[in-house]
Amino acid sequence: MLLRRRIVAAGILVVALVALVAVAVVPLASRLGAATDDRPPLNAAAFDPGLLIEDASFYDGAAMTATEIQDFLDEHIGRCATDSCLNVLRADLPARAELVSDATGRTICGPWEGGELSAAEIIERVQRACGISAKVLLVMLQKEQSLVAGATARDPAPEELAAAMGARCPDDAPCDPGRAGFADQVAQGATDLAAYRASEFMRQPGVHVIAYSPDPACGGSEVRIANDATAALYNYTPYQPNAAALAAGWDEGDACSSYGNRNFAWYWAAWFA
To answer: What's the predicted TM-score (pTM) here?
Structure first.
């Protein structure tokens, strides 16, 4: 029987601070290796930095069934070169107890049963427990390590699977080896995304200065963050695209460009909006 486990606020804060994305400043095109059939909405004016996704879509714990996730992976990955593609991968997901915030008393993620599962089953199980849409997790897997579409998805390297969600992967340090592996990455990434709202810490909706890149000299601008989901994405990847990044399509902008939240918004629009 799974026991209730409480998370202290200080521990949650550490999780959030190290959840910064290692590939946020790498343009997607440089990691795909080949064009995909997905095209971004190239109208830069349509990108709203204050509303990257609606809360109802982000916090949908029943957005997709495991069968629907499997079909989506099969469609977008196609023929796999190895046994590591997400449409054929199986991995061990350890059982986990309910996680509750000491700061608020709110549930961060419910419990789940463990087992050797397909990638689709892992995504669906974590979706239900943490209340983070499987569609969001699929977009995160793509914008972090290109694991859903393109050449990388058809032949992922071990290090790409080990950092699948960019969870506990800071911009200026190696990923936490204790969170390496596909199942651990999906579990940690979804937990982090849920924890920002459940524990009411780090950025919350309101006006915040969001940087353009990890380089402080690049500056940033005030963004009126409209909802919890957008705040969670900026806590996870704390940069917004500058004008050069938005004008570049999937390509590089300039030395002050970052791409993580741009790519999230564009993949969401291309696949699910």
So the answer is: 0.87
